[in-house]
Amino acid sequence: MSVQTERTVEQSWAHYDRALDAIPMGTQTHSKAPREALRSIEPACIVRGKGCRVWDLDGNEYIDFRFGMGPVTLGYCFPPVDEAIRKQLESGIVFPYPHPLEAEVAERLIQIIPCADRVRFLKTGGEAMAATFRLARGFTGREILLTCGYHGWINTMRKGVPEAVRNLSQSLPWGDVTPFEEAFTSHPDQIAAVSVACSYGDIEKGDPFLADLRSLTEQHGALLIFDEIVTGFRLAIAGAQEYFGVTPDLAVFAKGISNGMPLACYLGKAEIMDRVKDVIISSTFGGDTLALAAAKAVINFYTTEPVIDTLWVRGRQLHQGFHEHCQRLGAPAKFRGLPPLGMLTFKHSNSSDLLTRFQAELLKRGVIPYSVYYTNFSHTEADIQEVIAVMGDALETMANEALFD
Ligand SMILES: Cc1ncc(COP(=O)(O)O)c(C=O)c1O
Asked: In angstroms, rounded to a whole number, what is the distance separating the alpha carbons of residues 238 and 249?
């Protein structure tokens, strides 16, 4: 796929500029905001998706690697999932008492996720992480949290959060247990839980980091919480706990469980989860049947088809093809991390500009990149081959301008 010379994203941006008058940042998701530096290049508005492809407001077609920022793992408009949603819609969406799907999906999750004795549903990943924090504090009677990685806006201790609350949590880096040990020493019997989301660029450090955190939390009577919002249904069905063989006390799954329908779940040991009643975690839409019908179809599909294998195989193909182009052209770039969620990085005095330029070259040729390249069950071998060719072409353009010198 070469540069599409006729291509324009004018309508997309006109719509986005209009949206800015009604919506701060023009979007509900910070990472979806199109970049001003890529104004004539990046699509600012997507209108349709099918399989691994999306179309923007100007009619341009792309092979996608963002997938709604992760949740669409099987493909856009994936027939078995959409059919389940349509069928449920004919009977209604939310009801005055629980619907059977709530227990059915919970039981399926308990079968496939090692740490799950009990499950509860909410709508967003950050909200479900907040629920685990509430439970951990209620269960242990302690107040301090040690966190690692992004757990959603609700849990981000920035401006707008009272200082007294901010002081009750400490964000520590991925990969080394030492700062966590020091925190436990400084705050004896005060730490309720350690929460951790894997860092994708150096995810391999999960071994032995996660096992070390497991021993440390056990030693100090604190809970271990895994944020499996991205790793779940991607690295393995049961996420990092399955891949690294470490079982936390509580975990959150969200993005991959319903192929884009809004659903999150927090799950874990019965004696902790059963505290939900007295700490009070309750939500009107937690039992929404459309998302649960989608989750049931997704779990059935994952447990009967080689979805995880496909995410790995396509990722390996992508990484290998890209690395061959880098070698050929002397490009200072590589995929870091594991194939289903590799991070494409440049190592150069000008890395950030090179990355933006590379992404622009991909967009011009019909590929939507992201910091993490989410592989998808709907990417075929031929789709990935097409993307590798685009990446080679993009790198060659940059090499011809001596950008890698
Ligand atoms: C690891 C991780 N945790 C939590 C969240 C927050 O999820 P949500 O945006 O559904 O609240 C995200 C979202 O990107 C995430 O990647």
From this structure: 14
What residue owns the CA closest to ligand 1's atom 4? 151
Is the same domain home to 112 and 259?
Answer: yes
pLDDT digits (tens, 9 = 90+) for 71-96: 999 999 999 999 999 999 999 999 99
The count of structural domains within the chain is 2
- Calculate how far, in angstroms, residue 225's C-alpha sits from the geometric centre of ligand 1: 14
Domain range for residue 118? 79-304
CATH code of the domain containing 138: 3.40.640.10
Q: Whose Cα sits closest to atom 12 in ligand 1?
A: 152
Are both 327 and 289 inside the same structural domain?
Answer: no
> What is the CA(176)–ligand 1 centre distance, in A?
22
Is any ligand 1 atom within 6 A of the Cβ of residue 198? Answer: no
Q: How many angstroms separate the CA atoms of 101 and 104, rounded?
A: 5
Strand, coil or helix: 118? strand
User: From ligand 1's centre to the CA of 264, what distance in Å?
Assistant: 10
Q: Is the peptide bond before 208 cis (omega within 30 degrees of 0)?
A: yes
Residue 162 backbone dihedrals phi, psi, to 5 degrees: -55, 145
Is 382 in the same domain as 354? Answer: yes
* Segment 340-391, tens digit of pLDDT: 999 999 999 999 999 999 999 999 999 999 999 999 999 999 999 999 999 9
Q: Which of 72, 171, 200, 229 to mutate to test the pocket of ligand 1 (most atoms within 8 A of CB)?
A: 229
Estimate the share of the chain in helix, then strand, then coil, as percent rounded to the nearest 5.
45, 15, 40
Is the pTM higher than 0.90? The answer reads yes
Nearest residue by C-alpha to atom 5 in ligand 1? 152
User: Are residues 250 and 215 both part of a single domain?
Assistant: yes
154 Cα: distance to centroid of ligand 1 (angstroms): 10
